[in-house]
Amino acid sequence: MSNETNQVDRGSETKTLVLAVIAGMCGDAMLSWLTMSEVSFSIFPLIALVLSVQALYQEYLSKPVSEDIPLVGLACFFVGAFGHSAFIKAQHPGAGSNMLAIFITLGLLLWVAKKLGFMERQSKAE
């Protein structure tokens, strides 16, 4: 029974983190449209931003949150924002360098992987 509860909590945490990445990407897409002349307006990032923030809020209201998820969720938000920024700057080289955005994204991804336990060594007696 506790194993099923763990899987449900892990699925809920994964949903929260994916929604945070989507919200970060959409937020940066809207910011890029406002600040860069090369990026044209699209309504889809605005729609996706509203829907992802609404889904995050509903998830927050319906399920209890473990102690690490808010900080990891914020890191996932910044992974989405800096990742999208690096992608946009790779498409439009005149907008500036994407080196810092890539380093920040990779550093945050390593930290998230460590916090979620993906970087721990597996025990041999499984």
TrEMBL record:
The keyword Transmembrane applies. The chain crosses the membrane at residues 39-57, 69-88, 94-113. InterPro entries: DUF1422 (IPR009867). It holds the Pfam family DUF1422. Signal peptide: none annotated. The keyword Transmembrane applies. Keywords: Membrane, Transmembrane, Transmembrane helix. NCBIfam families: PRK11056.1. This is YijD family membrane protein. It comes from Vibrio hepatarius.
